[in-house]
Amino acid sequence: MGKNNYESLRKILFQTYPDRVCQKRSLGSNSYTLCNGQGLSIDSNSLLKDCEYILSLKQDTKLRSNTSDGKIFLACKIELDWLLHSPIAKRSRDIFFSEKNYRVCVKERIRYGSLLLKEQESKLENNEFEIALNVFCKAVLADKEKAFDLNEKSNVNFIGRLKTLKSTSCGKDYPDIDQKWLKDTLKSICSIDNLSFDWLQKQGIASVYLNQLSWKLREDFDKLVPERFKVPTGSNIKIDYTQGEQPVLPVKMQEMFGQAKSPSICNGEIILLVHLLSPAGRPMQVTSDIASFWQNGYKSIVGELKGRYPKHFWPDDPANSLPTRKTKSKI
Hints:
Radius of gyration: 35 Å
Number of domains: 4
Strand content: 15-25%
Low-confidence stretches: none
Distance between the termini: 107 Å
Oligomer: single chain
Number of strands: 15
Largest sheet: 5 strands, mixed, barrel
Mean pLDDT: 94
Order of helices and strands: HEEEEEHEEEHHHHHHHEEEEEEEH
């Protein structure tokens, strides 16, 4: 049979049995997928085992005991171009969220039944933005921790600030970061070019949240749950909002001399848990009642402090002494 006659015969067989099209699963494999999704395998010695597309002419779809596939006994090679131009081939433009790149993607695809013949990435068009935004919102709502990288330290601290504020009467006008807030906010800030987790993470949850507030609420936020607290020496010490329900102020003990009452935030509703540190920055005492500590706890450890850090000033009455960051020789 001549080459042209053989090709003509193959085309006739393809037109006769359009439901017998099989696609190779992977390079080097003798397994195929039928266009209805059924798995089939061909003999490993077959001359067709390296063909990407074949037409199964004789087959047994019953599954073998050692495989999840049926068996192909007779087949012929077919060409991808025939499949692409077949009336059975369906073209689609799919908008989806990529779990690999964490962004909304568009792919133009051609399928023959369950077989994916061809796909290529495309760019979102303006008239597709609403669909793409809904896809993105769904992905963010399903995993907001990953979308905003909420486990990153600065984000954990911000969420702690908001949680602290919301636990007081001062926080009643501040929205929760819930499903409704996320959906409304994403619709407000997203554009066709930034539907990705990477873009959200670069914005930062703090910036995104605060930018949705009125000017007054934003200003009050920084006053009510400040990032830093000014201690008696004038140092602005960062508050740690990640340790639980009570925010922590880690500060060297000498810088708190003269602090008669416990530091607080949220108009006095939240008392800071003070971690008093040694001159070397090591934890010495933890208290949420600084006045009581000066009167009682300090007296029980001042002798040890004088012995361990003799170059530093340890007054007998710390509540009424001047704070310092210096050693005795430099005071």
